[in-house]
Amino acid sequence: MPNVVKGSKQEQMVVVPYRPRRRALLVAVLVSVVAGSVVSGFLYGYYQSLRAQDTVQDERDQLTTEISALRSQNSDLSRQVAILDRSSVMDQRATVEVQVTIRNLREQLAQLQQDVVFYRQVVSNETVDTGLIVGQMDIYGTSNPDRFRYKLVMRQQDADGDSYLRGHVNVNLVGRLGDEQVIFALRDISDEQDQLDIRLRFKYFQNIEGELALPAGFEPERIQIAAVATEPVEKSIDQYFSWVVLGD
């Protein structure tokens, strides 16, 4: 009988049969399960990797297509910008050429108008040519499209250098305001003139000049020069000059 210490807890022993083949089989099964799990995980990961690569390739192909389309669109826009730039330059050149042509034509017209006045004076009789005449009537543009400089020269034809010409002159601007014909006296549109009858007193010539401002909406057509001389020869003149702007 074995020695037993009184009061200690005794463990019971179980006797099992020894089966080495069964144990080896269990180990083999366990290894197979683990190996299968590893292989399955690897195959699943490889499949997911292939799917991800396909997705990335599709996205890359799509981005490549979009980039190609954007490059083509950018090339078209660049060509359009270049065409518009060339058109703008050509339009600017054409505008400048037209403005120069208009200015030259206006100057030629003004010169021809003065020549006509001169030739009319030459072919008229001596009595008409004697005394008060309009020597010059010019309109010049300014930086303000509604303001203009004017210069009127009144002369004494066949002046002897001893006699003063005395009289007065009225200057009126004739044009249209809407559908109506309107006349503005020079004193109403020029700060330099405060009299309707501008006084004349000179031996050879007298300049009347300043600036005038066009009323809003008014379109000038011609200028009326009405003058009266009382000395040394009584004479009245009434002439019209077309509205021609020089140097604008």
Task: Tell me the β content.
Answer: 25-35%
Number of structurally distinct domains: 2
Instruction: Report the C-alpha radius of gyration, rounded.
Output: 55 Å
Instruction: Summarize the biggest pleated sheet.
Output: 5 strands, antiparallel
- CATH domain class of the largest domain: Mainly Beta
Oligomer: single chain
Order of helices and strands: HHEEEEHEEEEE
Instruction: Pick out the low-confidence regions.
Output: none
The second-level CATH architecture of the largest domain is Sandwich
Helical content (DSSP H or I, runs of 4+)? 40-55%
* Average pLDDT level: 83
CATH homology superfamily name of the largest domain: G protein-activated inward rectifier potassium channel 1
Indicate the structural class: alpha+beta
Count the beta strands.
Answer: 9
Number of helices: 3
CATH topology of the largest domain, by name, is: Immunoglobulin-like
Q: Can you walk me through this structure?
A:
- This protein has 248 residues and is an alpha+beta fold.
- The protein folds into two domains: 25-104; 124-246, Immunoglobulin-like.
- It has helices at residues 20-123, 126-129, 186-189; strands at residues 131-141, 147-157, 165-177, 180-185, 198-202, 205-213, 218-231, 235-242, 245-246.
- Strands 3, 4, 5, 7 and 8 form a five-stranded antiparallel beta sheet that branches. A four-stranded mixed beta sheet has the order 6-2-1-9.
- The radius of gyration is 55 Å and the shape is rod-shaped.
